[in-house]
Amino acid sequence: MAYGQILPQQILDLPRFGCINLHASLLPRHRGAAPVHAAVLAGDHTSGITVMWMDAGLDTGDILLRQDCELARDETAGSLHDRLADLAPEALAEAIRLIGEGRAPRARQEESEATYAPKLDRAKGRLAWTESAAELDRRIRGLHPWPGCTAVAELENGKRIDLKVHRAASREGSAPAGVFSGGLCVGCGGGGLLELLEVQPAGGKKMSGDDFLRGYRPRRMLDSG
C-alpha cells in the first residue's frame, strides 16, 4: 500500500495467486498519488479502501473488494487517513481469506467513472479569496496537515504577514473578497464567508482566530503566492 512505484509485468507474473494492493479510495474514483486528500477536496460523502488485483497500470487492476466509510462534515485529510488506516487491515484480512477459499472475485473497473488524484505540492495550498467559502473550507481540510494552506494578512499598521490556516469553516453571509465581516469571517468572492478558526503566523505559534484578531489587528486578507 502506498508503494509509489509501478511494478513491471514480469514481477506481477511471479506469484502463483497474483499480486494484490490496497488503495485508499473507492476505485476507480481517485486513482493516483493523493486519494485521501482528493476525497475531501472533492467534497465526497464516502471514501474507503479498495483491494485490487494488480496490473501494470496505475491503480487500474480488477477489484477484489471494497470497504467504505462516511466522511464527517469536518473531515480532514489527516483524520480520514487515520480512519482508513484502521479499516485497511480488516479489508486485507478479508481479501486473503477469500483468496484462500478460492472465492476472491475480479470485478473490472468502470473506466468512465475513473478520476485521478495527482501528487500534491505546496502551491496547491495557496488561498485565493475569489473562490467560494465552501471551496476554501474543503481545501483547508483536504490539505491538512500536509501540505497545508497559506494566506497573507494585511495589518492595520500596513504590514503584511504570512499565515498558515489550520482550521476554518464556511458560513452564510457576504462581503467583498478578503474583507472581514464580523470577527475573523472573511468575505469570499465566490460566495459566503470563511471563518478562520485556527491560524499560525510565520515564525509564530498556532493560535485561535480570536487570539490572532486581538493580537495582530488584521485589516484584510490577501491572496497568498
CATH homologous superfamily annotation of the largest domain? Formyl transferase, N-terminal domain
Low-confidence stretches are none
> In angstroms, what is the radius of gyration?
21 Å
End-to-end separation: 34 Å
pLDDT averaged over residues: 95
Number of domains: 2
Helix fraction by DSSP (H/I, runs of at least 4): 10-25%
What does this entry look like structurally?
- The protein is an alpha+beta fold and 225 residues long.
- The chain folds into two domains: 9-117, Rossmann fold, CATH 3.40.50.170; 122-222, Formyl transferase, C-terminal domain (Methionyl-tRNA Fmet Formyltransferase, Chain A, domain 2).
- Helices cover 24% and strands 28% of the residues.
- Strand 6 (149-155) and strand 7 (160-171) form a beta hairpin.
- The mean pLDDT is 95.
At a glance:
The protein has 225 residues and is of the alpha+beta class. The chain has helices at 9-12, 35-41, 77-100, 133-142, 209-216; strands at residues 20-23, 31-32, 46-53, 63-70, 116-117, 149-155, 160-171, 185-187, 193-201, 207-208, 218-222.
